[in-house]
Amino acid sequence: MTTLNDLLTKIGSQSIEIVDLTAPLSSTTPVLSLPEPFANTIPASLEPVSNFDDAGPMWSWNNLHTGEHTGTHLDAPTHWVSGRDGLSVDQIPPNRLIGPIAVIDVTAEVEKNADFVLEPEHIEAWESENGPLPEGAWLILRTGWGSRVGDPERFANADADGPHTPGISAAAAKWLAESSPISGFGVETVGIDAGAAGGFEPMFPAHYYLLGNNKYGLTQLLNVDKLPTLGAVLVVSPLPIVGGTGSPARVFALVERS
């Protein structure tokens, strides 16, 4: 039996589970909100073209209106000034969109402090326990934030000082971008940076360092609690938008169950 046939057999028997990590895309899907004078992307909406009516008696279809960075989406290098001469989403090699998953669980820390940020020492402690980050891995930060997705106010968690959501420090972002073998970094929050990252140096360091070093971001993941620390495989499927700085994506994990 070939490897692919073996994979399909295990999927059919559910000894390999396909876990959907994608948030539903609708008009209520959270979208990153930047303060003035910065411009913001639009939320998702459907515009009917026909619906079994005079405009199309045998078919129903819609125009989709949304931004590249809405819902569960991939950030390509060209999304950020540090990667502006890098790859657009259609140019990302497919083998960079499939890879091993490594999960760092900081749920307990985030329950105590919504502004928690991952530091290099957290990654070092993880590697001491689990071994080096795998080549081509997608590092996923488990924060428990996905449980808030049905409540826009709790998900944004903003006050007069801005949003309070977990993320990664500038030092950790720089280390992952320049010294680790990962393909990308995934989060449960609205963006790959912490809510307070506009005040970091550099501002939004996950974007700055990762996208500037040909690594990718992945946001608004659900069902992260169903992933093992190691051993699962991530499949990321963005639209190949020519010149796109990112794309909404369907994201799956292949998880082997005993």
UniProtKB/TrEMBL annotation:
The keyword Hydrolase applies. Keywords: Hydrolase. Its EC number is 3.5.-.-. Pfam families: Cyclase (PF04199). InterPro entries: KFase/CYL, KFase_sf. SUPFAM superfamilies: Putative cyclase. Signal peptide: none annotated. It comes from the Bacteria. GO terms for molecular function: hydrolase activity. It is an enzyme of class 3 (hydrolase). This is Cyclase family protein.
